[in-house]
User: What shape does this take?
Amino acid sequence: MTTLAQTPDEATTAATWTAVCPLDALVPERGAAALLENPDGAPVQVALFRLLDDEVRAVQQLDPYSGANVMSRGIVGTRGGEPTVAAPVYKQVFALRSGDCLESGGKTPLPGHGAHLATFPVEVRDGVVHVALG
Assistant: This one.
């Protein structure tokens, strides 16, 4: 993994940018999992989604309803113009930009998990996808 210098916007959030993969390695409207490291060295699993307009979104890989690291296997769609992913186990629908659960399917998240996915800033620079952690 390559850690890049912070841009001025990220300096206040102490984010560490990590080069993850070439944009071309991500298939539009399909997820991909990546194992990254927090600035403290702790592993973080993220799910990356390349949308049809080449926007890339990153959310936590852990499904808060099933407890499995499977979000990258979810089904990409839209609701009211908002890109979404449907979790592959119980089919909850999450907004990819905010991480909000838009449809719980009548289920509740596991204890200790909220009905929300953590999101991570993403930038594509020179054809390479970078994710900010920290």
About this structure: The chain has one domain: 2-133. The chain is about 5% helix and 45% strand.
